[in-house]
Every structure is written in structure tokens, then in C-alpha cells.
Design goal:
Immunoglobulin-like; mainly beta; 47 strands; single chain; about 675 residues
Length: about 675
């Protein structure tokens, strides 16, 4: 079944970005923890450069990082490996950068040398005096062009005390082709809801010639072949556009709840009707997951501060006002640091580990859900973060026995999560014995202990499942002042990009709210399906909320429900409710009506689908058939036929071999049958 059409395009002008697979003279995205092999530091600042796990410049961690301390005044160069520029008259230099500025202007630039670094010729330079980021694409030519061994360097010039830090990423130096469209990124989110989903990607013209149109193809797991689109748009050299496909019915990407990822592949086939000059940057693929549900997001606030820090006073006041005005909309952990001066008496090594994880180089510094936030925008940022859907849910509780705290926490996910960590931070709500030199007499949400350590607890979660963590810890070894003034922050975080998926305070000084057990489908007949579950063995809920495909369908005290639906696949979630407005994490399962015993009914008696197995044509006969839909084995709609009669034929000759489900909708019922294609 050929899917070739001219798409409606939504085109949004966006910033220039970096293509990971671009071939060229130099390409470096600093994925390792050490300097790239052969790179060196020349001049001042030899101890001020490092490879940081941050992504301030806008790429992916890691990145090249210049810190103000130890401070220097002059020129510092990051020198790259030599390249052969024989017969090359000019090159393009591309990179990202972000300046966290402190004082006066500083300069960065690109220079070349063909005498081993004794003489440097500047190809580009720019002064900056304000914090912010940019993406640089610059054609440069210097007297070193045409030489057989040429060094490139990124240089900083100024007094490093004028900056807090400067981050750089995604360096690329290449010769420019006449015709070259680069596929920059696939922008469809890594996590999507079920249902129709747009595929969005970004392209950039990195060639010398104006692009008038190009042809692209898209393929997704479950499609029988790629969709091809001719995109009629003009892009000047270095211009970047974001492109969104608006699907017609026979090319809809209908995301279904799966156990594994969908894979999206996008390719640039031709440009202006010609072969693209550089095929190495024409293809990208990305794994995405269709979530089994969502929950309310609670923003995780991590705050680095010190009682010896003067500027921390105003930020502590701002954050105190923010939390007072937004009860129930945040989770908070504050790390007291050991600087400036003698630092805060409540500094701990665990706080230092979190500081290093974020490469936090100054106090006060605040992060919302793993991203740096300007505290002057705190309310706006909190609103933005809390408006985003969360695809995980967290519930926990703690109690205290003497000096020992006992914590139980459930971390649940609606998606497949890997490379994540669950964090458990025991905080004291108010402290008064860590007074320093900044005039403050009390401090809020101060971290006392992280269970089981500041690196978190590495876990993997399948969709619809949860992981439980349990801890008992004697708090007498910490700085805790009062055992009746504790709170426990819980959050799930991606260890790579630092995104916090969701957070929650544990219920205080009480027992854990356990989830239901053994959620199951017990029967299906005439469009009515029955689901049941067992109450948790360790606790007694007051009732249950039941969701089907993300919508609340029943509030009940029973342990079963009946639900009318003609759909083959349903997502059912049950949440246990407890006194005082408390609740458990949800238990979610995917149910396929083909997997349960179906009671015979008249509509099924009259339905005949044959032959089965089928080699080419399958025939459907019944009464008052309205439509026939064919789904593949992972639930993706392959074909839909309007019938309006008692008979239908489906040509499956071009279908791949495997299992399909034929769903027949009539005036009386919807019936699904499994068919094997030979």
C-alpha cells in the first residue's frame, strides 16, 4: 500500500542547531568525561577549563566548560587537532555557547595557525557582556587556508573574573557543499500520549545554494513503508526551519499503548531535485514511547545556598514567598554549601555531590525539575513546569521511632523508563542552628540525609509498573535539630539530561498508602467488559478511583466494575483511596479483548471471516456491516474500509506475513477476530 502525498506543512523559524552525524574536518560533542584526544590548552587559564556534565549551551551533556576560578587576565586557547586544508579556501565553523556573565564584557573567537601555534590568525571574534546563549555558524577565511597542517582554536580573551562560566558544545568545522540540507533533529517528544501524533523535525540549509524545495521521507514502526513528502519552501544558507506533518487518514501515525518504543526514521532524499552534496547528515531516527496515562506534575525545587552568602538572603525570601503562595504545587530540597568564606555549618558531602552533578558554580542557584531558573521568573516558571503532563507518579510515607526514620516510597511510570534514579531526601522544615554571617536566623527545607546516597537509587520501570524503596535510618548522625519537624522529598530523575519526571512529598508521620493488587479482566460479552482487583494486603482503602484510557469512569468502594466499550484494547488504572485525602500510586494494565473468554452472542454467530490463515483475499460476511478495520499485531491501524452491506473483501496480498486483527463494526456490535497472514 503506497503512501505518497504532498503534506500540509507547518513551518516555524527556529534557531540553528547541531547534527550529531555531520561529517567534516572537526566534529566534537564532548560525550566523554575527558578532553578530546589531541586537544590542549594554550596560554592562560590552564586550570579553568573542564568537561562538564551540564548542557547549558543547549546540546546534550557533556560540554566544554570555562569557569572563572582560578581567575586569569589575558588569552586562553583551546587548541584542536591539526587538519589538512590543501586546496581549501574557506571553512564553516559551527558551535553552541552559553555565557553566565558576572561583570564587564569578554571576547571569544576562532583563530587558525599553520606554524604549530606560534602565530594565530583570527577568523571570527565577538564580545559579550550579557548572560545568554547563541548558535554560531560562521564562514571564515584566514592566511592559513590552503596549508597542509592547520590548527584551529577557540579562544577566550578578557578577565575571567567578569564571568561566572562559559559553556560550549557541538563543535563542527567543515567545508561547505553547494547543495546541502542537514537534518538537525526529530522534535517529536520522547514521550507522547496515545492517539494521533504529529511527526516534527528541523532542517537547516548548510550549503551555499538557496534551497527551493526538498524531498523527505518518514517511517514509523508498524507502517508498511515510508511516507514521502515534497516540501516547497525557500531556505537561505544557514537558515533553519521546523517542519510538522499534517496527516491524511491513510498516513496517520496512531500511537497505541505498547510495551516497547516506536522508532521514527526521517531522511532527506533530494534537494532542488538533485542529489544532496553530503549524505552523512540526511538521516536521523528516534525512539518514542506512547504513554499509558499521565498524572499531575509537581515541580521539584533544588536550591543551593549558604548562611554565609549575602545575595542568598533575597533569593531565600523570594522562594519563601513563592512556596507560601503555591501550597501543594512543589517539592523542595535545599542544599547548604561550604562557601563563600567558611560556608554553612550544615554543609554535607551529599550536598556537594548534588552540586557537582549540576556543576553549580555559585550560590544562590535554583533548579526547577533539573533546569536552572532565574528566581525573578520563579512564579512564571513554576506555572509552566506544573502545566506539563507528568508520565510518572510517586507516593510515599514515613514515620519516626525515636531517632530512626522509616520511609516507604512507590515510584510508578506510565512509560518505559531506563537510566533513571529515584531520590529520597530527608529534610528539616526549619533550622535555626546553622546561622552564619548573612543575617538570616532560620532556614527552610534543609537537606539532612539522602537515602540511599546523593547519587540516587538506580531503577528501571516498565509501563504500568512501580518500584518500591524502603529505608530505615538513624538520624542522630546528621544535623537534625528536631525529629518532629521532618519532611521527605521524593523524585524521579533522568541521569543523562537531568530532567525530573515528577516529585512528591511523602505523607508525614503515618503509614504507607499501598496500591491495589492483581488487576485483571474477568469477562467480555456484547461490548460489556468486567475488571476486578484485590484490596492491598497491608492496608485498608476507603475506596477506589477507576480510569479507562485516561478518563475517570467510576468512584467506587467495590473491587470490580463493568464497562461498556467496543474497543479491542483498553488501558485500565485503579488508584486506592485513603482517609485524609491520601491515595496510592495507580496500577495500570493493558487489556486486549482477544485475551479473555468472550461469551457467545448473536452478532458473533452471524459473523464469518474466511479463509484463516489467509494468503491474499480475506472475506467478511455478516449482517449490516458498517466498516472493517485491520490492525497489525502492535495495534497500529493498517486499513479501514467502509462497507454498508453484508459482505466485504480485503486484499491482503501486499501485507507483511504475521498476525492481524480484523475489527468488524455492525449496527448491533463490534467484533474483533485474529487472522494469520501467510
Amino acid at each position: 500500500m503506497r503512501k505518497t502525498l504532498l503534506f500540509t506543512l507547518a513551518l516555524l523559524l527556529s534557531t540553528v542547531m547541531f547534527a550529531q552525524n555531520r561529517a567534516g574536518l572537526i566534529q566534537e560533542s564532548f560525550d566523554g568525561s575527558d578532553f578530546p584526544a589531541g586537544w590542549s590548552i594554550q596560554g592562560k587559564g590552564t586550570n579553568s577549563w573542564s568537561i562538564s556534565s551540564t548542557n547549558n549551551a543547549g546540546g546534550t551533556p557533556n560540554e566544554l566548560y570555562l569557569y572563572y576560578n582560578p581567575s586569569f587576565d589575558g588569552v586562553s586557547r583551546i587548541v584542536m587537532n591539526p587538519v589538512d586544508l590543501t586546496n581549501v579556501e574557506e571553512v564553516v565553523v559551527s558551535f553552541r555557547h552559553y555565557l553566565d556573565n558576572y561583570g564587564d564584557a569578554s571576547k571569544i573567537g576562532i583563530a587558525t595557525s599553520s606554524d604549530g601555534g606560534n602565530t594565530w590568525n583570527t577568523g571570527w571574534e565577538q564580545s559579550y557582556n550579557m548572560s545568554g546563549g547563541a548558535n554560531i555558524n560562521q564562514v571564515i577565511t584566514t592566511p592559513d587556508m590552503g596549508k597542509s597542517s592547520v590548527l584551529f582554536c577557540l579562544f577566550y580573551e578578557g578577565n575571567s573574573y567578569n564571568i561566572n562560566s562559559w559553556s560550549f558544545d557541538d563543535f563542527e568545522i567543515f567545508t561547505q557543499e553547494d547543495i546541502d540540507v542537514k537534518l538537525v533533529s526529530i522534535d517529536t517528544p520522547e514521550i507522547i500520549p496515545t492517539g494521533e501524533t504529529e511527526i516534527v523535525f528541523t532542517v537547516q540549509n548548510v550549503g551555499k545554494t538557496i534551497v527551493n524545495y526538498f524531498e523527505a521521507s518518514v517511517n514509523v514502526t508498524g507502517w508498511d513503508e515510508a511516507v514521502v513528502a515534497t516540501i516547497d519552501q525557500t531556505l537561505a544558507p544557514f537558515e533553519t526551519r521546523q517542519i510538522a506533518f499534517s496527516y491524511l487518514s491513510n498516513a496517520t501515525f496512531l500511537a497505541q499503548p505498547q510495551d516497547e518504543y516506536y522508532n521514527i526514521t526521517v531522511e532527506i532524499n533530494s534537494v532542488n531535485g538533485e542529489v544532496d552534496g553530503d549524505a552523512s547528515n540526511n538521516s536521523l531516527d528516534k525512539n518514542i514511547f506512547a504513554a499509558w496515562g499521565s498524572s499531575q506534575r509537581t515541580t521539584m525545587i533544588e536550591h543551593f545556598t549558604s548562611s554565609t552568602c549575602g545575595p542568598c538572603v533575597s533569593v531565600n525570601y523570594t522562594m519563601s514567598q513563592l512556596t507560601t503562595n503555591n501550597p501543594g504545587k512543589f517539592t523542595y530540597t535545599k542544599y547548604q554549601m561550604n562557601w563563600p568564606g567558611t560556608g554553612d555549618p550544615y554543609y554535607t558531602e551529599e550536598g556537594g555531590i548534588r552540586r557537582a552533578y549540576y556543576a553549580c558554580d555559585a550560590v544562590p542557584t535554583v533548579f526547577f525539575n533539573g533546569s536552572y531558573v532565574n528566581t525573578s521568573m520563579a512564579q512564571n516558571m513554576l506555572d509552566i513546569e506544573n502545566s506539563k503532563p507528568a508520565y510518572t507518579n510517586i507516593r510515599g510515607a514515613f514515620n519516626v521511632e525515636g531517632n530512626t526514620i522509616n520511609v516507604t516510597a512507590d515510584f510508578m511510570s506510565y512509560v518505559k523508563l531506563e537510566n533513571v534514579a529515584a531520590f529520597v531526601s530527608v529534610n528539616e522544615k526549619v533550622t535555626t542552628e546553622n546561622v552564619g554571617s548573612n543575617g538570616e536566623t532560620s532556614f527552610n527545607h534543609v537537606m539532612m540525609k539522602m537515602l540511599d546516597g546523593a547519587n540516587g537509587n538506580n531503577i528501571s520501570i516498565n509501563p504500568g509498573e512501580y518500584q518500591r524503596l524502603e529505608f530505615s535510618f538513624d538520624m542522630s548522625s546528621t544535623n537534625v535539630e528536631e525529629m518532629n519537624d521532618l519532611e521527605v522529598s521524593l523524585w524521579l530523575q533522568n541521569l543523562g539530561n537531568k530532567e525530573v519526571y515528577n516529585s512528591k512529598y511523602a505523607y508525614e508521620y503515618t503509614g504507607h498508602c499501598y496500591p491495589v493488587e492483581n488487576l485483571r479482566e474477568t469477562a467480555s460479552a456484547k461490548g460489556t467488559r468486567t475488571f476486578a482487583w484485590d484490596a492491598p494486603a497491608q492496608s485498608t482503602p476507603t475506596g477506589y478511583k477507576v480510569y479507562v484510557d485516561g478518563s475517570l469512569v467510576e468512584n467506587t468502594s467495590s473491587t470490580s466494575i463493568s464497562y461498556e466499550s467496543s474497543k479491542q484494547i483498553l488501558l485500565v488504572e485503579v488508584i486506592a483511596l485513603y482517609e485524609g485525602g491520601k491515595s496510592s500510586v495507580g496500577i495500570v494494565k493493558k487489556f486486549n479483548s482477544n485475551d479473555v473468554s468472550v461469551m457467545e452472542n448473536e452478532a458473533e454467530d452471524n459473523l464469518n471471516i474466511y479463509p484463516n490463515p489467509v494468503k491474499d483475499v480475506v472475506r467478511v460476511s455478516g449482517e449490516n456491516i458498517n466498516s472493517v478495520s485491520i490492525y497489525n499485531s502492535i495495534g497500529v491501524l493498517v486499513e479501514r474500509i467502509e462497507v454498508r452491506s453484508n459482505n466485504a473483501e480485503i486484499n491482503m496480498n501486499d501485507y507483511n506475513t504475521g498476525i492481524y486483527f480484523i475489527q468488524v463494526e455492525s449496527n448491533e456490535n463490534v467484533v474483533s477476530r485474529k487472522v494469520v497472514k501467510l
